[in-house]
């Protein structure tokens, strides 16, 4: 049977387009879906379709929302003068799981990557600067990933914000809680030493 007409192959092809899903995982998921009752498959497909259709970007921070503004931006208790800048909405969800940050967010929608043709005009830096000129902000916390693109993005944004008289900080990173030092690489240990604090 040709791949184009094989339903399992077509399902696997679509599933393999998701991040972190390779060909084998996609095929395993396709076979699992093929064995599900039709009403469950219909519910799954409807949830994906309706969920995606209902989502939009918050007009203020760029997070996912169903309304014009996300619940975080609408929460007046969160307007404490802090804005945490993250790469995407997944990072907002990660920060919120911490239940420690009580400020607002700004989602860039990517990071600077000249090799991939992503420059400052391709992510939401201009919108961040506009927020800083219209909102009462005392501190911007840069929480982009500790990779080359994330570091370059954080450094670029910090250079733009510092002349505005707003405090700019960078999240610390290093050895994960619960891990052993012997398994940490040199860069991770160096960053952990840099980010140390007095007890």
Largest sheet: 4 strands, parallel
Per DSSP E runs of 2 or more residues, the count of β-strands stands at: 6
- Strand arrangement in the largest pleated sheet: 4-3-5-6
Q: Fill in the CATH topology of the largest domain.
A: Dna Topoisomerase Vi A Subunit, Chain: A, domain 2
Mean pLDDT across residues: 91
> How much helicity do the residues have?
40-55%
CATH C-level class of the largest domain = Alpha Beta
Number of helical elements: 8
The N- to C-terminal Cα distance equals 67 Å
Second CATH tier, the architecture of the largest domain: 3-Layer(aba) Sandwich
Describe the structure.
The protein has two domains: 3-54, Helicase, Ruva Protein, domain 3, CATH 1.10.8; 61-180 and 186-192, 3-Layer(aba) Sandwich (Dna Topoisomerase Vi A Subunit, Chain: A, domain 2). Helix 1 packs across helix 2 (23-35). The chain has helices spanning 7-15, 23-35, 38-54, 71-74, 89-98, 125-134, 148-161, 186-194, and strands at residues 56-57, 64-65, 82-86, 104-107, 139-142, 167-170. The longest helix has 17 residues, at 38-54. Strand 3 (82-86), helix 5 (89-98) and strand 4 form a beta-alpha-beta unit. The radius of gyration is 21 Å and the shape is globular. 43% of the residues lie in helices and 11% in strands.
């Amino acid at each position: 049977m040709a791949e184009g007409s094989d339903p399992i192959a077509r399902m696997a092809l679509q599933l393999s387009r998701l991040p972190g899903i390779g060909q084998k995982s996609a095929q395993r998921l396709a076979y699992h879906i093929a064995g599900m009752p039709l009403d469950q498959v219909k519910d799954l497909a409807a949830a994906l379709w309706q969920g995606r259709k209902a989502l939009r970007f918050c007009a203020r921070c760029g997070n996912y929302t169903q309304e014009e503004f996300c619940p975080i931006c609408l929460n007046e208790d969160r307007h404490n003068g802090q804005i945490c800048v993250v790469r995407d909405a997944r990072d907002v969800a990660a920060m919120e799981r911490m239940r420690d940050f009580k400020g607002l967010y700004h989602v860039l929608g990517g990071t600077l990557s000249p090799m991939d043709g992503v420059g400052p005009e391709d992510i939401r830096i201009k919108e961040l600067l506009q927020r800083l000129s219209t909102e009462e902000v005392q501190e911007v916390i840069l929480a982009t990933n500790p990779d080359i693109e994330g570091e370059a993005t954080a450094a670029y944004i910090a250079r733009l914000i510092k002349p505005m008289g707003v405090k700019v900080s960078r999240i610390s990173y290093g050895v994960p809680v619960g891990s052993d030092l012997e398994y940490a690489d040199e860069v991770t240990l160096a960053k952990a030493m840099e980010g140390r604090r007095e007890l």
